[in-house]
Amino acid sequence: MFKLEHNHEVYCFMKLNLPEGFTIEADPSPYYFTEDYFWYTVRKDGVTIDSKHGKFSELERGELIVWGKLLLYRIIKEERNENSK
Questions:
Q1: What is the pLDDT of residues 16-53, one digit of tens each?
Q2: How far apart, in Å, are the Cα atoms of 54 and each of 18, 33, 48, 73, 82?
Q3: What is the pTM of this model?
Q4: Which of 25, 40, 64, 73 sits in a 20 to 30 Å window from 33, CA-based?
Q5: How far apart, in whole angstroms, are the C-alpha atoms of residue 48 and residue 18?
């Protein structure tokens, strides 16, 4: 896991760390983060788990980082609970 320092790094962080079966999509493309707008959708087996969109310029510092880390933590925790049954 790499250290997140900027909101625009969240897509790569999630792409690298989501468990098998989960995906993150950047609409309209993974290069969307180079512009001011972002729209990220996290899915499990094609079903939307969560989505976040907006303008990078309107985010608080670290706001997207917090969203990504909390979502990843929740997903990993739920996956562990499912696997322990």
A1: 999 999 999 987 665 655 568 888 999 999 999 999 99
A2: 22, 11, 18, 22, 32
A3: 0.84
A4: 73
A5: 14
Residue 38 lies in a domain: yes
Residue 1 lies in a domain: no
Q: The domain containing residue 62 runs over which residues? A: 21-79
d(Cα 16, Cα 18) in Å, to the nearest integer?
6
- As given in the structure block, the two tokens for residue 45 are 């087996």
Residue 72 inside a domain? The answer is yes
Please determine, for residue 1, whether its predicted confidence score (pLDDT) is greater than 70. no
Q: What distance in Å separates the CA atoms of residue 82 and residue 39, rounded to the nearest whole number?
A: 29
Give the total number of structural domains in the chain: 1
Q: Could you tell me which of 66, 77, 82 has the C-alpha nearest to residue 13?
A: 66
